[in-house]
Amino acid sequence: MTPSHTRISKAVIPAAGLGTRFLPATKATPKEMLPVVDKPAIQYVVEEAAAAGLSDVLMVTGRNKRPLEDHFDRNYELEEALHRKGDESRLAKVQESSDLATMHYVRQGDPKGLGHAVLCAAPHVGDQPFAVLLGDDLIDPRDPLLQRMVEVQEQHGGSVIALMEVDPAQIHLYGCAAATPTGDDDLVIVSDLVEKPDPAEAPSNLAIIGRYVLDPAVFEVLRKTDPGRGGEIQLTDALQALAADPALGGPVHGVIFKGRRYDTGDRGDYLRAIVRLACEREDLGPDFRTWLRSYVTEEM
């Protein structure tokens, strides 16, 4: 596979999930719009794509996701009200989300899994490599994972997945990679992928996390991929086919991420993510940490 010499510019963000783990909060509000401190979770993801130079973002949505479109659109009435008040600080925050990237939207329709959501992006992506970012994983901007993945794809071609070492007892919660080392400490060649394996049968403790940079060959593989676990079309199954036969669309590399990742897909982890991010904010952190220490001491 010849490495790509076209700068990757497109990102796909699947956002069609129902958010059932956060009911009743998500009955009428998309889970992606739940706040993480003072920004919706989805904005962190779009900011990450933009920081990596991906200026064209396609969200794959479903019913009741209109607030996502509204958030990344201009709100002229609100902006004018803030301008009249002279509240330039809040005005800048309101405008920030609409200036991040060129946003596009497509509906998934039937919820047939992550692989199907990615396949919905095919007409927009075309024949160029692209990134996929899952909204439940927030990557700290101080740890530029996506930039590194883009560099690997442009150097080696094929597809690149993000991997993270986890406790072997927890590997059944993730897709898992069998991999061989390369000359770079953070880079491996993936030879096999297993979706949520039994810990005794897992090929490693390298878990797939929600960042991918994919060769467009993945679309043709997805079209031929039968529903797998849960009756859904699994992206992992398509990547497994690409890893097993690089002639289909180049090799599959894995970037081993050792940085800061915040999981917002689980209620407990969502709350922990908010606390961690709030503690690190210059405007909120000092007072919040003082209160948190006092609260923890009282509860012990």
Automatic annotation (TrEMBL):
It comes from the Bacteria. One of its GO terms (biological process) is UDP-alpha-D-glucose metabolic process. Keywords: Nucleotidyltransferase, Transferase. Residues 10-274 form the Nucleotidyl transferase domain. Signal peptide: none annotated. One of its GO terms (molecular function) is UTP:glucose-1-phosphate uridylyltransferase activity. The keyword Transferase applies. It holds the Pfam family NTP_transferase. Its EC number is 2.7.7.9. The keyword Transferase applies. It catalyses: alpha-D-glucose 1-phosphate + UTP + H(+) = UDP-alpha-D-glucose + diphosphate. PANTHER family: UTP--GLUCOSE-1-PHOSPHATE URIDYLYLTRANSFERASE. Belongs to the UDPGP type 2 family. NCBIfam families: galU. This is UTP--glucose-1-phosphate uridylyltransferase. It comes from Streptomyces inhibens.
